[in-house]
Amino acid sequence: MKERTLAKGDKKLLFAWAFYDWANSVFNLVITTAIFPIFYGVLFRTAGIESVEVFGMEVARGPLISYVTSLAFVFVALLNPLLSGIADYLGNKKMFLKMFAYLGALSCIAMYWFSLDYIYYSLACYFFGLVGFWISYAFCNSYLPDVANEDQQDWISARGFSLGYIGSVILLLFDLAMVMNPNWFGIEDTPSDPAAVKAMRYSFVTVGIWWIVFSQYTFYYMPKGNKKEGEREHLLLNGIKELRIVYAKLSESPRLKSFLNAFFVYGMAVQTIMLVAAFYGEEKIAWGSDEMRTTGLIISMLVIQLVAIIGATLTAKASSRYGNIPVLILINIIWICICIYAFFMETPTEFYTAAGFVGMVMGGIQALSRSTYSKLLPETEDTASYFSFYDVAEKIGIVIGTFIYGAIAQITGDIKFAIIILGLFFIIGALLLTRVNKKALSLN
Questions:
Q1: What is the mean pLDDT of residues 153-176?
Q2: Is 410 contained in some domain?
Q3: Which of 179, 305, 332, 436 could disulfide-pair with 430, CB 3.0 to 4.6 Å?
Q4: 0.90 exceeded by the pTM?
Q5: Which residues of 367-384 are buried (b: 16+ CB within 10 A; e: fewer)?
């Protein structure tokens, strides 16, 4: 497919960039947030076990998935800077965007065969799904200052998240219908799986197909990237070198450095909550029956996505009026309240309430963090390296967050205590945001 060359700020180019959220956000909702956590819990309950042996150790189901997630983000944090350096020197970010989008999508399809009997294969599929999603997402993020002018970055970042929420809700509704009424789709019980579980497996396939099909629009319009001039030796190490250069330059940009410190801390908590919320609800909430658990969790995730559309839009408008940093501080305070509330919740109604508040601040904090970082960048064509640094900071935070969550759950035997620790991260994040240079308060 021949690519189109469009000017920076062109509406069609902006929409194509934002549309990748439509294509890949189904992974975040269906796989990591809604269907897979339910499917994962069903496998363990059906087998009548709460733990499995992995590499000679008996690991409970909650900490196990948390550790796999943490390991995936270690891999992403290590690999992404290597790839960004190569992309900068070859001037072909789009090649890596496509490569990892396809890796993630095909891993989703391969999850159709997820089984506790083949635990290493199964966890590997989930692992590479996460890797494909996050690395392709990082490359897409790095295009933001390339495709959007500064005054466009807040609203197009929010538009991307909104498109992602809408698209993922559409697919989730289809998958929900398939899970709740498999006979409508000709899905029947098999010796290995009830019809509803079989439908969950099909939902993983729908995610992969959706991701591949709709990402083609983005691939068509995105430019290859800016080719960096200079020597081409040691390409594998250039990414690390670029990160070191970016880190050194942070001392010349105190606002950017202060913001990154805050983002590292609160981003650790945000992403960890997003990754474990459904697993938490599946295990800790008294749903009453398996059917009510499945329906309740999916409805909760739908609430989060639908409310997040409103939240991302309101956050973009609030930032234009009050400034990015004050709005981010307020959102962190709301997150603190959510963590305290989540520690005490036990009923489905309480979980639905928490889901509504999470949705209101989830999209807003992600979209506004991305656009704030983009605005604070110095004038440069090395956007892939700067966004690689942003991505590495986020992923290292997620590694720490998910590992702490899993470790506390493993040690205490109760994942509720991990929620309080995440709340502390938001407190620290809000305090660090207050230290951002006062000039950053006027960002709009």
A1: 82
A2: yes
A3: 332
A4: no
A5: bbbbbbbbbbbeeeebbb
